[in-house]
Structures are given as C-alpha cells and as structure tokens.
Amino acid sequence: MNEQHHDERTRIRAAIDRLLAGQPTSSNGSFTVVALAAEAGVHRMALQKRHADLKEEFYVRVRAETHQTSEVEKRLRKEVVRLKGALKDSRVAEAASRHRAERMALAAAVLILRQPNSQDQPVSGNVIPLRSSGG
Q1: Is 80 exceeded by the pLDDT of residue 129?
Q2: I need a labelling partner for 86 at 20 to 30 A (CA). Which of 14, 20, 26, 59 fits?
Q3: So where are the chain's domains?
C-alpha cells in the first residue's frame, strides 16, 4: 500500500467518525458517499473504486449507530418497489395477451373448419361438426 493510499484511508476513516458524531467540517453532514468524499477530501470515484470497503463500512456504521437508512438505500428500496410493480403489471399484460392469442387461434381454427373450399379440410370421418350458436 503506497503512502497516498494509506493517507486517503486514514482521512476517510476520520471523516466517517466526524459524520457519525454529527461534526462535519467540510461537507453538509449527510450520510452519503458524496458527503463522505467531501469530508475526507478525496474524489468520490476514489472512494467508490479504491476504497469501496470503507464506503461499505460507512453504510454499515450509519445503519448500526444511527438506526437510519442511508439515502442511497432509501432510493434503491423505492426503485425496487417501483420495479416490482412494473413487473406485476407486465405479467398481467402478458397473461392478457396470451389469453387473446389463444382466443384468436381458436377463432382461426373454427373459420378454417367452416370454409368448404379450404385446402386444410380434415378427413370427414375425423370431424365433429360445430353448431352455430345462432340456431
């Protein structure tokens, strides 16, 4: 581990402690990666890429010590609820489409059987005649 990497990790851990203590010095004090990066004086992508373990540690400590859900987790939970609703709607629409397709296939089969000049005319001994519902 090089000196810059070690220094960043030390600053991130100190920033986590300050944010959880409610004593931010360089950020708005929110429990987000953006605030943590600002508080630690590191680029947000450095926190996301090189120090992902510290980012996760931050969120674990936020939940454990403040009994709060992070903003990222709140957004993700809301998105999960939205996606579950969309999936349910999609499944309902798929079932309706499948039902329509089955009805259309049945109707097509009836029309084929009713056409006297159809090339697909079944063998006469193998056919049960359909009665029209109109009488």
Answers
A1: no
A2: 59
A3: 3-68, 73-118
